[in-house]
Amino acid sequence: MPRILIREPNHFYTYELPVAPGGAVVVGSAPTCQLALPGVGGLAPAHARIVCQPQGYVIEDLQSQYGTLQNGRRVQAEYMTPGAEYMLGAACITLDPASMPAAQPQQVQQHTEAPKTTQSAPAKEAAQHTATKPRVMKKAASAGGSGGTAGGGADLDKLVKKYERGGGSKLTFVYVLILLLLAFYAGIALRHWQRTGNCLPGIVADGN
Q: Which H/E stretch holds residue 55?
């Protein structure tokens, strides 16, 4: 319970303070005071008053002749500092720090869960673009081929792949392609023979 320490020239004792807001203790030499200190030099009949406030205890000087002093400074009305000495005449009054309720430490809630980070739309788009970029470059490199064979080679590869997807093999496709070329050339030779009488283009028949 809050209390004050009173030290006189020949005595030392304690006094418990009221805890209800507005409760007051009058200190003086008169026997009618709540804290009567008769025979103390320089102490007025009603020297000072200690009032309980929600923020702490206030000491008020009651217009005494010699005043209420704290480190030589005259006090009119102020909150008492625990451990500080207030002189009322020859009596020294101190608010006992050990009797004051300890301040409750403020509890800080600790968040153990890691905060979830949200990725913005531009960041997602950039990440997707970065992820697909190597694949696009690889496809472009294969499509580019080697210089002038890019066009015909790519078309031939497409035909071969289309034929393979249909169930045929690459070697069979080559054979079929050769036969088609031979048939095409034979058709050209036959047509040339019908027109010119020559067996093959560029060869003159005997007797002509």
A: none
pLDDT of the chain along its 208 residues, tens only?
899 999 998 889 999 999 999 999 999 999 999 999 998 999 999 999 999 999 999 999 999 999 999 999 999 999 999 999 999 999 999 999 999 887 544 443 444 445 555 555 556 665 565 555 444 444 444 444 444 444 555 666 666 566 566 555 666 777 778 888 888 777 777 777 777 766 655 544 444 4
Which residues on adjacent β-strands are paired with residue 73?
Answer: 70
C-alpha 102, offset from chain centre: 33
Neighbours of 135 (CB within 10 A): 9
3-state DSSP percent of the chain in helix, strand and coil, to 5: 35, 25, 40
Contact between residue 48 and residue 62 where contact means Cβ atoms under 8 Å apart: yes
Tokens 């015909």 — which residue? 152
Q: Is the pTM of this model over 0.85?
A: no
The owner of tokens 């929600």 is: 54
Q: What is the DSSP string of 68-86?
A: EEETTEEESEEEPPTT-EE
CA dist 28 → 36, 58, 89, 178 (Å): 5, 16, 10, 131
Distance between CA 165 and CA 172 in Å, rounded?
A: 13
